[in-house]
Amino acid sequence: MKKNFEELYNDFMSDNNDELIEAMNQIKKDKRKRLVLSLSICSIVDVFMLLSIFTSSATAMPVYVLEMIMLNVGIIIISFIFFNKGARKLRSIFKEKVIGKLLHNFYDDITYTPNKGISSDIYDDGRYKESYNKYYSDDLMVAKVDKKYPIKMAEVETIKEETSKDSDGNISTSTYNIFHGLFGVIEMDKSINNDMYIFQGKTFFNKKRLEMDSEDFEKIFDVTSKNDIITTQLLTHDVMAMLVDFYNKTKMNFDIGIYNNKIYFRFETGNVFEMRSIKKGIYDKKPIERYFNILKFVEGVTNLIIKTIEDTEV
Amino acid sequence: MGSIFITSIVIIVLVFIAGTYNKLIKLLNKAKQSKQGIDIYLKQRFDLIPNLVECVKAYAKHEKETLEKVTELRKDYDKDQSLKQGEIVNNELNKIIALAESYPELKASENYLNLQKNLTKMESQLQAARRIYNSDVTRYNTAIQTIPSNIIAGLFGFKEKELFEIEDSQKNNIDINI
Q1: What are A21's strand-pairing partners?
Q2: How does pLDDT run across A73-111, given as a tens digit for each residue?
Q3: A233–chain B Cβ distance below 8 A for any pair
């Protein structure tokens, strides 16, 4: 039985919080350690730097002052990297206690591995017509939809990095975020014997698009397919209305590709399943509610598509 | 100077007429193509009528009249392949499928089940084809009714096309339960 957000949130709050208290204490310890260590090292460094400043010429003085500031900042950053155990622990508790539970609410037979991702080969099978040269993925979830169909889902980020040389020979690198969000694939028993792709049209005029009989849907989405009849069979008014409704509520870009027996989906959620702020702790309601709604929609729309495919003779 | 201006205006008008005319022709052809799509699915579906009649006859002897009616309507459709006639036959065909509910032996027959599966598949495809047709016809009709393409449509005699509408009595019979 799937729980609504409030029920789930109450479950989170009534959980055994020993681990959480331990992590919070660790964060306080880290803070103290960071403060003591960075103050001591900075003081020693600053004393040496001040001695150098006083013995140096007036022209070299600004350089020394700049160096001193940079060293101090560096020491503080390093202390944050080394004394971060509590925050790391808190993040891991968040993934286990919050995200794990959210995912369990929607899927069966679930294995959630926060530090593992989905392979780029699987992502490329989604046939996205975009080029990238950096690929990152984590928060891998492997589960089953309705105890039947395997689903793999993870956060994915693809980046295009371009290096250019100007007329003076200076090399500069530009990075473009191609996609950052939730990507997933569901494998069904039944094939639709067709390839179809629903996406938010980025071009004003797309000759290859299939014209659908819903004005609202057409305003937002483009559909391309090999077989228009099968695509129209599957894109029922219910399915179209659900996609339009979600887009209107969230204004989030997403696309769905169905290639024979596989459903690929992407939602441009940006950073997902992460704890927003250590200060607010792991039970910060707003981001959790957002993740819940994303998962609810993903589950809702994929289930509706699966049911339509199951019910349709193609 | 004046002649250049007039020539430019004439060229612009001619380009507009040609462009709009071509657009209307494209929309009209698309609607015709969609209509052919419906015809193909109807034909495929109606080709199964003799098999269905034979199959039902064996189990439902009291339904002779209905079976004869559908066969006659099928013949009429060969003469008048209009959307309306097609739908009359299709509706009658769906009635025969619905008959199976009253004949358990027929419902259990393997031959009938295969036929029913194919007919259901075709009905689903037919509904999709109708939606595509209606979508294309709406686009065409909108083009010939709106300014400025309505001027060209009037000039070249483009006529509004009829949308496919399912009558309420037919709607009830279209749902087929396996």
Answers
A1: none
A2: 888 888 777 777 777 777 888 888 889 989 999 998 999
A3: yes
The 3-state secondary structure of A279-314 reads: CCCCCCHHHHHHHHHHHHHHHHHHHHHHHHHHHCCC
* Statement to judge: residues A42 and A183 lie in one domain: no
The answer to whether residues A105 and A3 touch, using CB atoms and an 8 Å cutoff, is yes
Please report whether residue A266 resides in a domain. yes
Say if A216 falls within a structural domain: yes
* Chain A positions in Cβ-Cβ contact with residue B37 (cut-off 8 Å): 229
Structure tokens at A60: 């070299």
Whether the per-residue pLDDT at A263 is higher than 60: the answer is: yes
Is the minimum CB–CB distance between B26 and chain A shorter than 8 Å? no
Tell me, yes or no, whether A252 lies in a domain: yes
Is residue A58 domain-shared with residue A185, that is, in the same domain? Answer: no
Q: List pLDDT tens digits, range A108-157.
A: 899 999 999 999 999 999 999 889 999 999 999 999 998 899 999 999 99
- Spatial strand order of the sheet with A149-165 comes to A108-113, A134-145, A149-165, A171-187, A262-267, A254-259, A195-200, A221-225
Q: Which residue is it, tokens 């579906």?
A: B45
Tokens 């071009």: give the residue.
A203
Q: Which of B117, B132, B139 sits opposite A313 (nearest CB)?
A: B117
Looking at the domain assignment, is residue A89 inside a domain?
no
Helix/strand/coil for A108:
strand
Give Cα A177 to chain centroid, integer Å.
13
Total domain count, chain A = 2
ipTM of the complex: 0.72
Same domain membership, residue A270 and residue A192: yes
Write the residue in A212, A213, A229 that is nearest to B125 by C-beta: A229
Per the structure, the complete domain to which residue A152 belongs is given by 108-311
A314 touches chain B (CB under 8 A): yes
List, for residues B42-72, the tens digit of each pLDDT value.
888 888 888 888 888 888 777 778 888 888 8
Q: Which domains, from first to last, does chain B contain?
A: 21-174 (1.20.1440.20)
Rounded to whole angstroms, how far apart are CA atoms A80 and A71? 14
Q: Which residues of B touch A229 (CB under 8 A)?
A: 37, 125, 128-129, 132
Tell the burial category of A92 from Cβ atoms under 10 Å away from its Cβ (0-12, 13-18, 19+). middle
Q: What's the pLDDT at A92?
A: 83
A39 and A146 belong to one structural domain: no
**Residue range B19-44: average pLDDT?**
92
Both A145 and A258 in a single domain? yes
Give the A window 79-138 contacts with B, CB below 8 Å: none
